[in-house]
Design brief:
Layout: H1 15-21, H2 26-32, E1 44-45, E2 52-60, H3 67-75, E3 80-95, H4 97-105, E4 110-117, H5 120-126, E5 130-135, E6 147-148, E7 152-154, E8 157-159, E9 164-168, E10 171-175, H6 180-202, H7 211-217
Parallel strand pairs: 2-3, 3-4, 4-5
Antiparallel strand pairs: 1-5, 2-6, 2-9, 7-8, 9-10
GO molecular function, one term: metal ion binding
InterPro entries: RraA/RraA-like, RraA/RraA-like_sf
Organism: Paracandidimonas soli
């Protein structure tokens, strides 16, 4: 049985879990997820202050064509983040101010795209969170089909529709829909542990107690040697 090109409905991370997970930095979630799920660093916020969290609404387009993004905007739900596989093409922009304004009006939580945006200064002034691989003033075509609601590859990471996705100035992290809730206690513990370690450093305890053992394991120090 052939899958339709447009899948309109799929399970999403519940809104209360999104809210709880959004309290953690993407870096914290990536760490407790096994240091995985971070998109390639080419996908960056248009402005350092931008941050987003929500459920992934996946879109696949041909390079330089945004027909399916317009369809996605019509179908996405409040709280969704458009996650667009633009094939890392930067020869023309996939979205600009007009489309971003529509997304904001519809309550979409933001945009993550492996492609280019334009009207970046206007989008920054809007304060709407957009994470893109770059910018380009060229406009896109609107002629070529693609897919919506299918798994996509964005920044070298597979994103499934309904996954949790979050981003800040460090970059973007995706966590599987079925996994994010179980990571929340681990993330809270990591935040607490890191705060305690920073407090200890501020108090003068700057020694990394694990370092000698790691250096011996790596063969840099001999058994019994210390730095």
């Amino acid at each position: 049985m052939n899958m339709p090109e447009i899948i309109k409905e799929f399970p999403r991370v519940p809104a209360d879990i999104v809210r709880q997970a959004s309290e953690f930095q993407p870096a914290i979630l990536a760490d407790v997820a096994g240091r995985r799920g971070a998109l390639h660093g080419r996908i960056r916020a248009l402005h350092p202050s931008m941050r987003l969290s929500g459920t992934a609404f996946t879109v696949e387009v041909r390079p330089g064509d945004n027909l399916m993004i317009h369809a996605a905007i019509a179908l996405a739900k409040p709280g969704d983040v458009l996650v667009i596989d633009g094939k890392a093409d930067l020869s023309s922009a996939l979205m600009g101010t007009i489309m971003m304004t529509a997304c904001r009006k519809l309550g979409l939580a933001g945009i993550v795209m492996d492609g280019a945006a334009r009207d970046s200064l206007e989008i920054i002034e809007m304060g709407y969170p957009v994470f893109a691989a770059g910018t380009n003033p060229n406009g896109p075509t609107k002629n070529i089909g693609g897919r919506i609601g299918h798994p996509v590859s964005v920044g070298g990471v597979t994103v499934y529709p309904g996954d949790f996705i979050t981003g800040d100035n460090d970059g973007v992290v995706v966590v599987e829909r079925g996994k994010i809730e179980s990571l929340l206690p681990l993330a809270a513990k990591k935040v607490k542990d890191e705060a305690a370690r920073i407090a200890a450093i501020e108090g003068g305890d700057t020694t990394a107690k694990w370092l000698d053992g790691a250096l011996r394991k790596a063969g840099v120090l001999k058994e019994g040697e210390t730095l």
